[in-house]
């Protein structure tokens, strides 16, 4: 009976699918790249430069960094919650994976389109949570590193589970790229601040 049982177990289809090494590497590469871009931009800036605003209602570079850091925690938490509780959709997984490159490119363009203004929810609005560059840099590094470690090791079926984003939908793997593309969006905003005529020289 034991050989027959083993054969039957092998014949049972296994639909849950972990990320492939290529998928993990692609996601981690983007997370690492945008992490470096944020840190490299902020590294040489003084406190005066970090806190400079082009207008009272506009965000400073320090506030952009705070928003990126808080959003990282919020989005990763949502992804992990859905990954742990949602049921995988096998048919949608395969259809989504087939359009992977086009989906990621479209999402990245949407996220980094600064002509389309967006309002952040109150819980991720800048509120002065970090008083200095060192504080926000430390928090950003820690949260991004936690995201990277999770992507590297999670056994969850991120391609088969989905998250509603307003009228659209993304699989959880694509949501990882939302985190890094969100960093890119606000990197552009930081560069806009630095290009302003009143930006402090040092």
What descriptors fit this protein?
202 residues, mainly alpha, two-stranded antiparallel ribbon, 8 helices, elongated, disordered N terminus
Q: In brief, what are we looking at here?
A:
The protein has 202 residues and is mainly alpha-helical.
Detailed description of the structure:
With 202 residues, this protein is mostly helical. The chain has one domain (20-43, 58-195). It is 63% helix and 4% strand. Helix 2 runs antiparallel to helix 7, helix 4 (61-85) packs parallel to helix 7 and helix 4 runs antiparallel to helix 8 (172-195). The protein is elongated, with a radius of gyration of 20 Å.
Task: Give the SSE layout.
Layout: H1 2-11, H2 21-42, H3 47-51, H4 61-85, H5 90-98, H6 100-111, H7 133-153, E1 162-165, E2 168-171, H8 172-195
Antiparallel strand pairs: 1-2
Helix pairs in contact: 2-7, 2-8, 4-7, 4-8, 6-8
Structural class: mainly alpha
Oligomeric form: single chain
Count of DSSP-assigned helices: 8
The description of the largest β-sheet is: 2 strands, antiparallel
N/C terminus separation: 78 Å
> Any idea what the shape is?
elongated
């Amino acid at each position: 009976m034991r050989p027959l049982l083993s054969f039957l177990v092998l014949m049972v289809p296994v639909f849950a699918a972990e990320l492939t090494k290529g998928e993990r590497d692609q996601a981690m590469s983007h997370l690492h790249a945008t992490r470096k871009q944020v840190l490299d931009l902020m590294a040489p800036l003084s406190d005066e430069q970090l806190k400079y605003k082009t207008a009272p209602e506009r965000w400073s570079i320090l506030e952009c960094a705070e928003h990126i850091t808080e959003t990282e925690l919020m989005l990763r938490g949502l992804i992990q919650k859905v990954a742990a509780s949602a049921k995988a959709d096998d048919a949608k997984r395969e259809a989504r994976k087939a359009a992977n490159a086009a989906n990621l490119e479209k999402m990245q363009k949407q996220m980094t389109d600064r002509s389309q203004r967006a309002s952040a929810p109150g819980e991720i609005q800048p509120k002065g949570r970090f008083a200095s560059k060192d504080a926000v840099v430390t928090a950003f590094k820690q949260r991004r590193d936690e995201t990277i470690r999770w992507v590297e090791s999670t056994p969850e079926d991120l391609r088969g589970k989905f998250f509603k984003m307003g009228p659209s939908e993304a699989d959880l793997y694509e949501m990882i790229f939302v985190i890094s593309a969100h960093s890119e969006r606000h990197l552009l905003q930081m560069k806009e601040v630095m290009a302003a005529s009143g930006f402090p020289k040092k």
